[in-house]
From TrEMBL:
InterPro entries given in the database record: CheY-like_superfamily, NreC/VraR/RcsB-like_REC, Sig_transdc_resp-reg_receiver, Tscrpt_reg_LuxR_C, WalR-like
Recorded GO MF terms: DNA binding
One Pfam match: GerE
Organism for this UniProt entry: Actinoplanes couchii
UniProt protein name: DNA-binding response regulator
Amino acid sequence: MISVVLADDQTLVRAGFRAILSGEPDLDVTGEAANGREAVRLARELRPGVVLMDVRMPGMDGLAATRAICSDPGLRDVKVVILTTYETDEYVYGAIRAGAAGFLLKDTEPVDLIRAVRVVAAGDALLAPSVTRRLIAEVAARLTPPPTPELAALTRREVEIMDQVARGLSNEEIAGKLSISHATAKTHVSRILTKLGLRDRAQLVVWAYESGHALPGWLP
């Protein structure tokens, strides 16, 4: 069972998402928050698998709430998905950089919302990878890449796998492309995250583009 907390200041939006998710046997909406502060409190109290987080809310907004949740070591297993109206919102980029697993447009189809919650809970892939990576690449391209001595800590195979993650491939797809097992691909990704001090795949993609290692031209 995947537990979900909904954070949005619009009651009707929360009701709509609850209706969609509650119809699935493996999904359980365990809490609702009307602002970021409530979302953080519920995340600490309920330890949900996924928090669907609106970007703009009164008081503590979605970005601040995402930072609070993702920087809390006790909430490492809680995945945050940002809900937004605009796919090019740089505010969303900030949330992903802060640790959000990805983002969904509010007008997404119900089947895609359900799939997204399951994918993020499994920790296997970014949501809407082409859109997410395009946003990351566009913003990161305007930054000056910092020195990345951490890259030296990665083995040649780990760098190869990081490249595939930055291209949006899942562990299963990486396994097929590199002729390794799914478990081996997953282990490599976990080691890369540990060596770079990153929370999840979303932050790894951000790191790859911000460091200048990944290039916008990689996007489909």
